[in-house]
């Protein structure tokens, strides 16, 4: 029996496009198909695979995806989600009514779900290269659809089809951001500030440093396609237990550089040396809003 297309995906059919030929997609026999005959299956977990032939470049593996889901579920990054919602409400009036929110590099859908909670008339679509992460994103919210896709390829979305795009600690495709955004829509980009997770980077051998030229490179990439209209910063100190700290390291690119055999000992020693019961870790994130030129 064909697997039914989830309602959140059906709600996006007016905007979804075939990643092979850019034709509109329709639901047929438990898959998404275009008029040229390209067909895209639905995973049992509820997401659609909208990758082009070569596949995605990278994505979280199972351990990283589970660590990210566990860590975000603690609410430690709720201050960042709150600022994203406040900024979206301030600069995209359309979100007060029926609207479309896309999250590129959505991971388990934590930030997308926050937007949908805040804007009850909005529909959401999370796109990620990691099938492991999309198992969580497909059930992150009752109005959230999920699709396997590559941020470095043309997005499987129509021109001018999205009111708000999120890019939170994710790769960026500025030309595609500008193409799919509506003229009064906005892109929100969240990236680490210099001191983000500084205590962990000082404690854990192999943790990846923040690129000191990140802001310069970001501006060079975005400016030809989008104009920055507002900027905010999120700065707070997190009090993490050892399990949360392990998951925080394991969900980042640093997980591929840190020796797992030493991680537990290092974090336990750092926690024992810290005041109080938990490890003090700085959350420092820059969030900027951009409109298409």
From TrEMBL:
This is 23S rRNA (Guanine745-N1)-methyltransferase. Residues 17-51 form the 23S rRNA (guanine(745)-N(1))-methyltransferase N-terminal domain. It comes from the Bacteria. One of its GO terms (molecular function) is metal ion binding. Residues 103-185 form the Methyltransferase domain. InterPro entries: Methyltransf_25 (IPR041698), RlmA_N (IPR048647), rRNA_m1G-MeTrfase_A_prd (IPR016718), SAM-dependent_MTases_sf (IPR029063). Keywords: Metal-binding, Methyltransferase, S-adenosyl-L-methionine, Transferase, Zinc. The keyword Ribonucleoprotein does not apply. Zn(2+) binds at residues 34, 38. It is an enzyme of class 2 (transferase). Its EC number is 2.1.1.187. Signal peptide: none annotated. S-adenosyl-L-methionine binds at residues 77, 196. The keyword Protein transport does not apply.
